[in-house]
Amino acid sequence: MKFISTRGQTNVGVSAAYAIKKGLAEDGGLYMPESIPMLSADDFTTLSKMTYNERAAFVIGKFLTDYTSTELLEDAKNAYSEEKFGIHPAPVHKVSDGLYSLELWHGPTSAFKDMALQIMPRLFVRALRKTDEKRDALILVATSGDTGKAALEGYRDVPGTKIQVFYPTDGVSRVQKLQMQTQEGKNVSVKGIRGNFDDAQNGVKRIFADEAFANILNDKNVFISSANSINWGRLVPQIVYYVSAYLDMVNSDEISFGEKIDVCVPTGNFGNIFACYIAKLMGLPIEKLICASNVNNVLSDFLKDGVYDRNRSFHATISPSMDILISSNLERLLFLTAGAEKTREYMKRLADFGRYEIDADVFSIIKESFIGFYTDESETRETILSTFKNKNYLIDTHTAVAMRAAEKYMDTHKAERKILVVSTASPYKFAKDVYVSLGGINTVGDTEALGALSSMTGTQIPTPLSSVLSKEILHSDIIGKEAMDNAVLDFVSDQ
Ligand SMILES: *Cc1c(COP(=O)(O)O)cnc(C)c1O
């Protein structure tokens, strides 16, 4: 299987290992497999009898044909070990009749990013070897919270790599900050930036684009790479849990094999829901993909009228991992539905004007599979309360955005099919907002909220989050955004 750019100007396809090492294609596009492999009826029968790790090796192997099945199975086993994820890395919970929740937050950082970032570093290290790379990789990450911690956990002490994370010092929750500041590992660096997420992101992008800087690093035998969802190595592990969840539902007699279901995904950068779309194209019986946005509703507007318009004000919400106005992975959907030439045109308009309108024929293909709804802040809080009160199920703020979107969809579409809502974070990761939504006092401290939520609901604080409160702070530096280049150089020279 070869990989090509969504912008179609890189004329030869590259191997999966090369695509994973590079992250972004040379022409600025994103890597895509040149075709989507199908899962046959026999494949589904085989998969249904497998463990999660075996399913992961099987599905990923359809795309990463330059990796052996032994390599992929070994990586899956190490990534999704019981010690890290519990007995099932991605269990399906029945919420009520016809409504299910795919829990993707049982990993070491309590958010769904672990599903990809526990295995991606392993695929990445193999990619270095397969492409005969002699230099060390420096993974640079700008984070609004969840990605940074998950990437640090994934890359810590991985040979041949170093990882440096920049977060906005006033733009992440207290728990998220503590998670990063207490990060252990010999190859990690964490810096707070005086500025917002865009400042951190722009700084990282600037470093990526700086050729002179790349040469300086090259002299030190280092090159820069990324752990963002623009990298195919992060998307491919996300296809697995859709296949796995469907087969688990069949195996537990919740659905019959071949029965179509709808899936509702809380969406930010469009990575998770795009992985679901790939699963559908591979033959998984999914009918509609419900794209749930918070009040940064650029995607639900796009799915309503075919116009992507980022010229709007940005809202900081209680579901911060979805506070995004440019959803990078939408480019991959455009590529599949409109082709490379049109995608290039749309992306140019997005860069120049912050807005583009897709052609009617492209829009009708997209609408066949996708529908968008958005959930505002008070609906999010109400949904946390009603889901707990009426269904005895505790959900975080991001999952609540999706749960409400699924309810809106059921109201307007009379629920012909069962719905799988994707649950992307542990409620404890956003403990204060969840606690207050349930009627707790809003003067509770961010870290006190963990215990308060536990006593109020009779549920357990996940160990990785409870232990963060007692860990030693190892990274307290806060730097100006103009000092990021120096921070990179210091870190590289340090080791
Ligand atoms: C990253 C994240 C999302 C958004 O996922 P995308 O793949 O960027 O669309 C949703 N919820 C949580 C908790 C996240 O961390």
Characterization of this structure:
The protein has 495 residues and is an alpha/beta fold. Strand 5 (136-142), helix 8 (146-155) and strand 6 (161-168) form a beta-alpha-beta unit. The chain has a domain at 91-112 and 233-461: Rossmann fold, CATH 3.40.50.1100. Helix 15 (330-338) packs across helix 17 (360-369). 48% of the residues lie in helices and 16% in strands. Bound molecules: pyridoxal-5'-phosphate. Residues 111-113, 146, 229, 266-272, 321-322, 398, 424-425 line the site of pyridoxal-5'-phosphate.
What's this, in brief?
The protein is of the alpha/beta class and 495 residues long. It has a domain at 91-112 and 233-461: Rossmann fold (3-Layer(aba) Sandwich).
The small molecules bound here are: pyridoxal-5'-phosphate
Strand order in space, largest sheet: 3-4-14-9-10-13
Weakly predicted, low-confidence segments: none
Structural class of the helices, strands and pairings? alpha/beta
Largest sheet: 6 strands, mixed
- How far apart the termini lie comes to 37 Å
Strand content: 15-25%
Q: Which CATH class of the domain at 91-112 and 233-461?
A: Alpha Beta
Average pLDDT for all residues: 95
In CATH terms, what is the architecture of the domain at 91-112 and 233-461? 3-Layer(aba) Sandwich
Sum up the overall morphology in one term: globular
Gyration radius (Cα, Å) is: 21 Å
Number of strands: 15
Helix tally? 23
Could you name the CATH topology of the domain at 91-112 and 233-461? Answer: Rossmann fold
> Helical residue percent?
40-55%
